[in-house]
């Protein structure tokens, strides 16, 4: 789950990473009030789940409450790469002497946290990595050992920070970032830019924070931060029903059991000349409620013209899935053509049940490829 800048900064603050004071605003009037409460110049920042807001005109300085109100009315409603701005973060403006970059991500291949630090911050980090890779210091953290102070020193010296006060402050932030990463089960904590003010103070001016979805049950307060309005409505519906669903762009609705089989099903539909409308994994079960939930999510997408139901019975038995399908279809009215391919445990029994009792719009195909071809044909 990706957090908004202001949410990430709240977690930074809790972990002891220095950030500026700020207030949330959803209207120009609220932005004015926030600027009044904060006092002095502020920065008006679009809260959207995408980077590069500065370049897109989503971040503007305001000298006083009047200007804050004016900048807020310019930024609210702005479309930043498909994300419409509905919230603003009004923050005490900082003077910037230097812009650095610091992040801690989960490196899957190394199975460890990975720090990256460079004094060439503010810009796209991919650019730094491509153009001056030597300027980017990378360092893994062994999860069993945890953070060690020498690691912070290696990052700071490695990147060539020479000011002793900066070295000390950055080393402390590096350590606190580890604390935030572990405490909140993060996948990514990124500070770009990490600034040094003309007075020599180091702080996080931006935050990119991703929390592991599978750990959200341990963090009810973070789970609450999810912005349901900004989510794709189909994906929210799927989440509510505990259905694993990813919207794609085609016409053939795909339903399979198990992530691997479902991915293959998506491939086979493409191979047969069609375009999958979604990825939907029924999981291990195949009970009627699971089928109803999955079908109700898939058919909510108006682009779907046919459904390909691909089941391989391992632990799940095909006859149970067939009963689930039949019960689901008796509970919901569905006119779209459905092609079912059943194989594995009790497949014959399952096919027999479907042949006996299924409605006209349901067809059974013997193999995955034939089923895909039929579904693609019916969707055309
Ligand atoms: P991003 O463009 O989405 O990464 O948003 P950031 O929060 O990183 O802001 C983009 C840029 O705006 C920063 O790199 C700064 O140069 C500038 N900026 C943001 N906040 C302030 C501030 O308080 N004072 C000044 N002078 N510039 C700021
Ligand atoms: Mn940034």
Please characterize this protein's 3D structure.
41% of the residues are buried. The mean pLDDT is 93. The strands form five sheets. Strands 1, 8, 9, 10, 11, 12 and 13 form a seven-stranded antiparallel sheet that branches. Helix 2 (28-38) runs antiparallel to helix 3 and helix 5 (149-158) crosses helix 6. It is built from 13 helices and 19 strands. The chain has helices at residues 5-15, 28-38, 65-75, 125-131, 149-158, 164-183, 220-223, 233-240, 259-271, 288-298, 318-331, 347-357, 368-379; strands at residues 2-3, 22-25, 42-46, 59-62, 79-80, 83-84, 88-92, 98-107, 112-118, 137-141, 186-196, 202-204, 208-211, 244-247, 252-256, 278-281, 306-313, 338-344, 362-364. The two termini are 36 Å apart. The longest helix is centred in the middle third of the chain and has 20 residues, at 164-183. The protein has 380 residues and is of the alpha+beta class. A hairpin with a 5-residue loop joins strand 11 (186-196) and strand 12. Bound molecules: guanosine-5'-diphosphate and manganese (II) ion (MN). The site of manganese (II) ion (MN) has 2 residues, from loops.
């Amino acid at each position: 789950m990706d957090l908004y800048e202001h949410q990430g900064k709240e977690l930074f603050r809790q972990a002891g990473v220095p950030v500026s004071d700020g207030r949330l605003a959803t209207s120009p009037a609220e932005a004015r009030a926030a600027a009044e409460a904060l006092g002095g110049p502020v920065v008006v920042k679009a809260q959207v789940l995408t980077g590069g807001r500065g370049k897109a005109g989503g971040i503007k300085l305001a000298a006083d409450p009047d200007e804050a109100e004016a900048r807020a009315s310019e930024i609210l409603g702005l479309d930043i790469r498909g994300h419409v701005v509905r919230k603003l973060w009004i923050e005490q403006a900082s003077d910037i002497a230097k812009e650095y970059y610091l992040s801690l991500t989960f490196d899957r291949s190394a199975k460890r946290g990975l720090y990256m630090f460079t004094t060439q911050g503010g810009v796209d980090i991919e650019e730094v990595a491509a153009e001056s890779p030597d300027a980017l210091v990378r360092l893994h953290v062994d999860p069993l050992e945890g953070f060690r102070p020498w690691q912070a020193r290696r990052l700071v010296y490695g990147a060539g920070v020479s000011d002793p006060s900066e070295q000390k402050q950055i080393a402390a932030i590096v350590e606190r970032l580890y604390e935030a990463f572990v405490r909140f089960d993060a996948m990514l904590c990124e500070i770009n830019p990490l600034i040094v003010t003309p007075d020599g103070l180091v702080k996080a001016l931006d935050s990119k924070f991703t929390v592991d979805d599978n750990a959200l049950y341990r963090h009810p307060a973070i789970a609450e931060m999810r912005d349901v309005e900004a989510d794709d409505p189909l994906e929210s519906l799927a989440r509510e029903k505990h259905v694993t669903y990813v919207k794609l762009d085609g016409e053939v609705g795909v339903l399979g059991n198990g992530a691997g089989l479902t991915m293959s099903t998506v491939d086979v539909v493409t191979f047969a000349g069609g375009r999958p409308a979604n990825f939907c994994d029924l999981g291990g079960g195949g009970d009627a409620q699971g089928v109803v939930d999955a079908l109700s999510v898939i058919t909510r997408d108006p682009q779907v013209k046919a459904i390909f139901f691909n089941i391989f019975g391992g632990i799940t038995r095909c006859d149970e899935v067939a009963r689930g399908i039949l019960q689901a279809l008796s509970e919901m009215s569905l006119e779209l053509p459905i092609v079912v391919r059943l194989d594995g445990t009790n497949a014959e029994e399952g096919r027999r049940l479907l042949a006996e009792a299924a409605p006209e719009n349901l067809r059974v195909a013997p193999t995955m490829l034939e089923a895909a071809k039929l579904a693609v044909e019916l969707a055309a």
